[in-house]
Specification:
The structure holds 2 protein chains of 2 kinds. Chain A is an all-alpha fold. Chain A is built from 9 helices and no strands. The longest helix of chain A is centred in the C-terminal third of the chain and has 21 residues, at 134-154. In chain B, α16 (316-327) links the parallel β6 (306-311) and β7. The chains are: A mainly alpha, B alpha/beta.
């Protein structure tokens, strides 16, 4: 790991200075995650401010959806025009990227990166259970992602757009959805325990 | 009642998107700080070892919920302009179950995988690619089950409306339920995750007490009634009424009804028997005392090009209806000037079946807008089968002052991930 000394501005030690400036960007000390309840309060504040200022909650999968449809429309607009679901986002002269959830997705990426950088957690690695290989973890991440993406669109929202946003505004459907997500995950957790334990 | 802000007319689209990007930035930052970029931490939730997911998710929901409904109760935030995910019962539940399976196999949800990918976690990158593939597959396959996907639709339905309870009571109930789940979660972490609870910060009890107090506060403030909301907007809206900015001429109503680019929803607020005697073609009967029930549907079908027009015999009942709709933030709402009486005076003069009530019985012309009384008699309750119910717009060239202006609506598209 890296040197965790604060950047020194002392003129007598140019070597140390060069190293610490480089470290300031590339090898920051790893800090622990914040306490879950503090995370909860901060996330709650972000969610509340999103509603308070804009009237919209948070979102992620909708933005990814629009990015996909943007490329589909680029490659085959005629195909998009035959599909009512795609047409809603990209029909006629509509630009699928022209929606608030798209800048939000890019903001989320940037925010995650900056937090990871400040707290020294930007690092090329693969998080996995001890009993599977890196490659099979990648495969299962892709498979799980595909299932998740499919389900998220079917449910008209993912954890952010349905569970968090609809939960805070007391939507009946979002609460039913939320319990279904936990139910689905707990129902199969035992069968896939080798992935994680 | 100034929030949520009408961002697009206020700052323009580019800056509006900057604001959304900043909210996204804060979202990603907090997710990463809480450890949601780490799939091991997320998956541990489902083996009862580390219940961070439960704590952060439900903690965020109850924090936001208490703040949100406090602001609604204080009249600062207009809840009708806040996006509430529409309820599609079965697609939501089946989609949720599928997502749960994807969660435990892949180790992320879409939002957290973005954060993982941004911090160079390769499993996060593969998950994002998987999500993109899954979304693509959904778009390609949804035409096969579109009917089911749009079924069990209950619209904008909140738990308090569903249970018939007040918002405050439901908010308090959910806060208590979440706190109970946190307590249970901590016990699981102690037993299965071998965690020492004595090291947990004592401050969490203070946070819990604050949330309960906030929820009780929501009950005490109560939610604003239609009268409260009207009182807040009355200074501006009374002026519009007095200047007759919202009372549209029958000729203008006929014109906008014929305009293919507009959707005109006419609510006839008279009693049912008068509606059955005569009404404008396409008008729905919404007697004044049932108007409240029709408002959620009006919010649900809001589109940029929808215009709501309220109609009564003259103007008094329609004006009351207009005040209710305006207080409840139904946009683009207008009153038919002079009501049905004026409509018939304009379009029904040549219909021999419709006869004016003898002058001695009819309210005098000047006072007629304030009283509710039909000035015409009809041979039978033919509803909209009179000629004057559906005048041909091409046959009428009328002089009037156009008043309909489409109000820019906020971007309330699909919401969140939807």
């Amino acid at each position: 790991m890296s040197v965790s000394a604060p950047p020194s501005l002392s003129p007598q030690a140019p070597d140390v200075q060069r190293r610490t400036v480089r470290d300031f960007f590339l090898a920051r000390p790893v800090r622990p995650y914040i306490h879950p309840y503090l995370g909860a309060i901060l996330l709650g504040l972000v969610l509340f401010l999103a509603f308070f200022i804009t009237g919209n909650g948070l979102g992620a999968s909708g933005g990814l959806n629009r990015i996909i449809v943007f490329f589909q429309d680029l490659i085959s607009p005629a195909h998009v025009d035959r599909n009512a679901y795609l047409l809603k986002m990209a029909g006629g002269d509509k630009n699928p990227l022209d929606d608030w959830v798209v800048p939000m997705v890019f903001g989320t990426l940037a925010g995650g990166f900056v937090s990871g950088w400040i707290f020294g957690r930007v690092k090329v690695e693969t998080n996995k259970g001890p009993n599977i290989s890196v490659r099979s973890r990648w495969l299962w991440a892709f498979v799980g992602g595909a299932i998740m993406g499919y389900g998220a669109r079917m449910a008209r929202g993912c954890t952010s757009g349905q569970a968090l946003s609809g939960g805070a505004t007391l939507s009946v459907g979002s609460w039913a959805f939320m319990f279904a997500v936990f139910g689905g995950a707990y129902a199969v957790a035992w069968f896939v325990r080798r992935l994680w334990n | 009642m100034n929030f949520p802000l009408l961002l697009e007319p206020m700052v323009g689209k580019p800056w509006m998107y900057v604001i959304f990007a900043l909210i996204g930035f804060a979202f990603g930052f907090v997710l990463e700080m809480s450890g949601f970029g780490n799939s091991k931490k997320l998956a541990a939730q489902f083996y009862f070892k580390d219940l961070t997911v439960l704590k952060v998710m439900f903690g965020a929901i109850i924090t936001a919920m208490v703040l949100l409904f406090t602001m609604v109760g204080l009249g600062v935030l207009d809840f009708s302009q806040v996006w509430v995910n529409p309820t599609y019962v079965w697609p939501g539940i089946v989609g949720g179950l599928i997502m749960g399976v994807g969660f435990i196999i892949g180790g992320f949800c879409p939002g957290t995988s973005l954060v993982a990918a941004a911090t160079a976690k390769l499993d996060g990158v593969f998950f994002v690619l998987g999500v993109l593939f899954g979304i693509f597959m959904f778009g390609e396959t949804v035409p096969f089950f579109e009917e089911w996907w749009n079924s069990s639709y209950l619209g904008r339905l909140t738990i308090p409306e569903w249970l018939g309870l007040s918002y405050g009571v439901v908010v308090l109930g959910i806060v208590l339920m979440a706190l109970f789940m946190f307590w249970g979660g901590e016990q699981l972490e102690r037993i299965i995750g071998k965690k020492d609870l004595r090291k947990e910060p004592r401050l969490r009890y203070a946070a819990a007490a604050t949330l309960v107090a906030g929820a009780i506060g929501v009950i005490m403030i109560g939610q604003p009634t239609t009268e409260d909301k009207w009182a807040l907007v009355a200074p501006v809206k009374e002026v519009a009424l007095d200047n007759r900015e919202v009372q549209i001429h029958p000729g203008e109503l006929l014109k906008i009804m014929a305009d293919d680019q507009l959707r005109v929803v006419i609510s006839d607020v008279r009693p049912e028997q008068e509606y059955n005697l005569f009404h404008i073609s396409g008008a729905r009967n919404v007697p004044l005392d049932t108007l409240g029930n029709a408002i959620p549907e009006m919010h649900a079908r809001q589109a940029l090009n929808t215009i709501f027009v309220v109609v009564s015999d003259n103007e008094a009942a329609a004006t009351d209806a207009w005040k209710t709709l305006t207080a409840e933030s139904v946009p683009n709402t207008y009153i038919l000037e002079g009501g049905i009486n004026n409509w018939i005076a304009t379009f029904g003069k040549e219909d021999p079946a419709i006869q004016p009530v003898p002058a001695s019985f009819a309210a005098s012309e000047s006072a007629s807008y304030a009283t509710e009384q039909l000035n015409y008699t009809f041979p039978a309750a033919l509803g909209d089968r009179y000629l004057a119910s559906a005048p041909n717009p091409h046959e009428w060239e009328l002089e009037y002052l156009p008043k309909v202006k489409l109000e820019m609506k906020r971007d309330k598209s699909g919401g969140g991930c939807g």
